[in-house]
Amino acid sequence: MIIITGFQRSGTTALGENLGRSPQAAYFGEIFHPDGFSDGDRARSLRLRSDANYYRFVDEHPDLHRGPPDAGRVAQQWTAYLAYLDSLQPGARAILSVKYNSWHNVAAAWQDPTARPFLLDLLKAQDPLVVLHLMRGDLLAQAVSEHLASSTGVWHATGAPAAQADREELPPYLIVERMNRCLAQRRLMRTRLADLPTVELVYEETFTPDGDLSAITRQALAPYVAPEILTEAPGVLQRIIPDLGERLSNLPQIVQAVVAAGLSDHVAPATLASVKRPARPRKTAAQRGA
Known about the structure:
Rossmann fold; 5-stranded parallel beta sheet
């Protein structure tokens, strides 16, 4: 089993799509999607992912959730769910996407959301298992992408790029808050994954310009993923935000707020360089002589 985890807009769907192209693998998408549908709508796997949603499976099997929602009951549900996934695509290596905020969902009815997710213990029984922890270096771009996707409802693009929308003005404090939230969840996830076989991937290094897996990624995954799954082909997803300056009318103000918050290490150097610092006012002759 392969688990892909990360914050929203960190490339988890693109990675799952890429690995799932092989007939030796089955990408089931975001299994805890709240709408009863997994994260993606490519025609080849549309029906597969809808059927693979964990909530939908549990709702359609009421015999699995009779009685108190304790650890034993959840373990039974999870075992039955994995058997069901195997029946959807027998023999293929399952690839599941679990976002940062979804790790408690398998036991949401009884587990404290601040505790160690019970799903981590369930995964220890899976062999072979690898968790691919995908992170984005440019958290400013990620925060802006998350906001725009939430506001437009367009999370992934596969066809020709849509017409460029009007430039928006976003509150700098909102972007800073999103970046800090991502960093906090990333640190917590790293701690929780410490006792599971995990490969950390950086979004900016994971893909080639055409969406294929980079040489760095292939080398990192080679010990855990069969060569047949690491196929070479262009990706099917496109970047939705090609340039922050094209989408934000107040990018300089946002960058200044991010720098003031001590988050400049999580912004692309090109973005920092593109924003000119406000010129210092020239001193008068009297000031220079003082």
